[in-house]
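Entry 14. Structure prediction run on the chain below.
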Amino acid sequence: MNKIKYLMLLILFATCSSIYAQEVPEGSEEGAARPEETEVSLAEDAITESPHDSETAAAGEEEIAQKVEETEWVERGDLVIFQNDNRVGPKERAKALITIGGDAIVEGRVDGDMATIGGNSVVEGNVDGDMATIGGSAKVMGSVDGDFAVIFGSAELGPDARLGGEAVVIGGVLTVHPDAKIDGEQVNIPIWPLDSLDLDRFERIPRFLGECVLLARPISPNVPFTMYMAGILLLFYLLLAVIFPKPLQGSGQALADKPLQAFLIGILVYASGPIFFILMAITLIGLALVPFVNLAVLALTIFGKAVVFFHIGKQIARATKLPALENVLLSIILGGIIVYALYMIPFFGFFLWLVLSILGLGAVCLLIGNSISQWKAAGRADPPASPGAPPLAAGQAESSASDSPEPVQPGTSLEKVESATAVLFKRVGFWWRTLATAIDLILVGVVVSLLNIALFPIPLLAYFILFWGWKGSTLGGMALGIRVQKISGDPLDWPTAVIRSLSSIISSLPFFLGFFWAGWDPEKQSWHDKIAGTAVVRIPKGYTWN
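Output returned:
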């Protein structure tokens, strides 16, 4: 079907984005060999010169065709233009016309196809092939012998327009003059209802697509809207700094102390979004929480951008030895100016925006986690001594921290072990972890196969979360006598079990490097251990799981 060609053209035209030069024969430079703008088209000359009183309409058309054949065209070959306007003059002839990120105007003739991505198209002459416009508006005052398609833009066919194929407009409005001639079908699929569509605003989209989307940058000096939004966001960041000065400075300090951990946490939060949605969809009732969680993540991301701007501005102020600029508001302004300038660099701008978004979100989440840990530690600080217990001597506390746990009576439950004793358990490295995980994979794989469950990762994550939160160890870990606990020696709670399980996705992304990390890390922690604040230890003899 012809409509499929339009989608195939998009893939074909995208491969031309690396072509920056155009093929221009000698003497056809713009402004040198181009005819004057006031020249009258050949079709008009033919009509005015034809004797209306003695020749029929068919004879007039033959005369026009003969004059076109006798015209001396300025051949321009294949025209491929990137980030600039493309124009074929009244007596110019091109084999094909491809424009990416600019407007295209045809006053002469194109023997092949014409395609425009991220710009507007105008045809006043003739296009022998197909005409496609993506992300822009199109206007035809001449003829297009093939199919005509506009995606995410509006189209207008004037009184002299002639289309030899179909006219398809998706995501815009198709306006056809009553005198226009279309041999094929007309298809118009607007995104919004026609009566509520603001055409003036819709026409601004092509410039944004060409300057920002195609060049992968959040801000473009040629698109005022992006500059206005950047200024509004910067003012909002300053407002957040005024309302929440301590959380912003605390997040900035967390980012300065642990940038890698903040980055990993940010990736974890974004990567766990689809998994969270699937888990909530399974419960059905949990779907009501999805919009609120999305809003919370969006709010933390925006606040994180303010944190990143503050951190960058503060570091620049320190490097330049200007203490006055270390003020919170001035640091945000300075950091924002630097970042916004880098946002305008094509392709690098989007990459920087993504990295800073992850860093900012991770820094805020890191501060929240540290605050929760400090709050719990404050609740456990200075526990009341048991009645009749003698006070510890001056050096007893330090010596007990360095000694190994004393042997226990056989059958002692792990639930009764104190954190001060559990923190002394010997930590386990890579190989014992791998063996326990292999046992778990076999067990879960057998169950999944018996139950004919297609999505293996979901029951696997649920299995780890369930057993870590319940017993602090999986079946494979119990078989080998190892368990997961907090670095403080406390047993795992359910939130920590969920965080550690989802964090394992981060460890698996770079070819499971995060899992191998436990093999050479001095603390014998994997990446998800460091994120969740946990460690894998060997259970001494004498303890039981009940």
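Residues 3-54, 194-202, 382-403 have pLDDT under 50 and may be disordered.
Filed with the rest of this week's runs.
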